[in-house]
């Protein structure tokens, strides 16, 4: 094992470990979106204030720009049957807008095969080992998943076959792809989901998620706390709101397995930075107004696009419109170039997201804040409470 000098503790995976009691993992959201708790952490001093999320305007700079991810979560978790009758769970991993749909032909020149479409995608299959390459899993009469190639950790290359509108089929037959630490009864288990479980389609979705940006398989959870009324109050206060799109993939839950975190291979993510948002960010930075990202996905979009444009030969500090893949891993020692603050939730031990917030505020300061959050009963992870780092 590679030894890391004590002075480089920020690069040691075990430096991001902490004990989290299972009962502190939020299984359901707060009764109202903005009723969740809020911890406010000052980056420079380490001072901590606590409040309700509905009070966040008291803590946001009067002239700030908030940048949020408007991607929409799709019900990407499905259950189907193998040709031999076995039950298979399928979690579609490829963002919907990145699927290259092709009409399936009948073999007769000029004639389509009954209006079927196909597209290659990545998916998680459970149990993957029981499905053979070439075997088809029927989700419904008009939606099938065929295994092409098995990969590591259950990830597989599959061929989707469907008739009609794929998003509508997912809405009809799929379930929201809640993180693995949020437990819900599965169809066929004989348990009836309660009202909170049935509301996941609404609550595991931001109120500003756009229909034309559907494709994420995980929610940008920091945005779950915003209500339309809170957004209206924010904009009425002469603060500015802008949006980006990052199609959140399952890679956001991928653990860091390298003892030296600098060796971690970060997953690539597809983002869209509109020209209007790039101009808003550039204007705020030129006017020395704080740019605050709503969630780690928005932070990675801004910082990732900035880094990508510099690699492509740009020497300007200005952002430009961008649509494409980014791959950025932010950890202590890697400076932020665009954002000044972050609204986020409380993250998993030893996760890349915990390393990102540690890069912004300092690892020891973040872990001290987490200790206080645990002592004061804050709820963790996707449906949990929020933190503002400013």
Textual characterization of the structure:
By secondary structure, the chain is an alpha+beta fold. It has helices spanning 166-173, 195-198, 200-203, 228-236, 275-286, 296-311, 352-361, 363-375, and strands spanning 37-41, 48-52, 65-69, 72-73, 77-82, 87-92, 102-105, 112-126, 136-140, 143-150, 155-163, 214-216, 240-246, 269-273, 291-294, 322-326, 341-345, 386-389. Strands 2-1-18-17-15-3-13-14-16 form a nine-stranded mixed beta sheet, covered by helices on one side. The chain has a six-stranded antiparallel β-barrel with strand order 5-6-8-11-10-9. A hairpin with a 4-residue loop joins strand 10 (143-150) and strand 11. Residues 1-6, 108-112 and 190-197 have low confidence and may be disordered.
Keywords:
18 strands, single chain, 390 residues, nine-stranded mixed sheet, QueA-like, 2 domains, alpha+beta, six-stranded antiparallel barrel, Thrombin, subunit H
Describe the structure in brief.
It contains eight helices and 18 strands. The chain has helices at 166-173, 195-198, 200-203, 228-236, 275-286, 296-311, 352-361, 363-375; strands at residues 37-41, 48-52, 65-69, 72-73, 77-82, 87-92, 102-105, 112-126, 136-140, 143-150, 155-163, 214-216, 240-246, 269-273, 291-294, 322-326, 341-345, 386-389.
């Amino acid at each position: 094992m590679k030894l890391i000098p004590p002075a480089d503790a920020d690069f040691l995976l075990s430096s991001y470990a902490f004990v989290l009691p299972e009962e502190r993992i939020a299984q359901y959201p707060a009764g109202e979106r903005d009723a969740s708790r809020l911890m406010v952490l000052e980056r420079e001093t380490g001072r901590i204030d606590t409040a309700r999320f509905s009070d966040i305007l008291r803590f946001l700079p009067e002239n700030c720009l908030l940048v949020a991810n408007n991607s929409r979560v799709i019900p990407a978790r499905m259950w189907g049957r193998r040709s031999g009758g076995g039950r298979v769970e399928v979690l579609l991993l490829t963002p919907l807008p990145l699927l290259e749909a092709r009409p399936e032909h009948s073999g007769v020149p000029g004639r389509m095969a009954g209006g079927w479409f196909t597209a290659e995608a990545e998916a998680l299959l459970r149990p993957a080992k029981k499905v053979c390459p070439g075997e088809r899993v029927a989700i419904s009469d008009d939606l099938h998943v065929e295994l092409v190639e098995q990969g590591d950790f259950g990830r597989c290359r599959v061929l989707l076959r469907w008739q009609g509108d794929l998003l509508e089929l997912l809405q009809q037959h799929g379930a929201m792809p809640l993180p693995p630490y949020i437990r819900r009864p599965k169809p066929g288990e004989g348990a009836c989901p309660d009202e909170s479980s049935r509301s996941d389609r609404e609550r595991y979705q931001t109120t500003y998620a756009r229909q034309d940006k559907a494709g994420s398989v995980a929610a940008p959870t920091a945005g779950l706390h915003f209500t339309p009324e809170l957004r209206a109050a924010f904009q009425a206060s002469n603060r500015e709101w802008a949006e980006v799109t990052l199609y959140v993939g399952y890679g956001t839950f991928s653990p860091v397995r390298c003892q030296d975190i600098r060796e971690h291979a970060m997953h690539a993510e597809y983002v869209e930075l509109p020209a209007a948002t790039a101009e808003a960010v550039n204007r705020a930075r030129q006017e020395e107004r704080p740019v605050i990202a709503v969630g780690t996905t928005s932070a990675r979009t801004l910082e990732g696009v900035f880094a990508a444009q510099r690699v492509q030969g740009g020497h300007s500090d200005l952002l430009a419109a961008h649509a494409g893949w980014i791959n950025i891993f932010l950890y202590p020692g890697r400076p932020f170039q665009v954002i000044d603050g972050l609204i986020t939730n409380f993250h998993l031990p030893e996760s890349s997201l915990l390393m990102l917030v540690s890069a912004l505020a300092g690892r020891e300061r973040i872990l001290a804040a987490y200790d206080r959050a645990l002592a004061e009963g804050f709820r963790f992870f996707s449906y949990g409470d929020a933190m503002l780092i400013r």
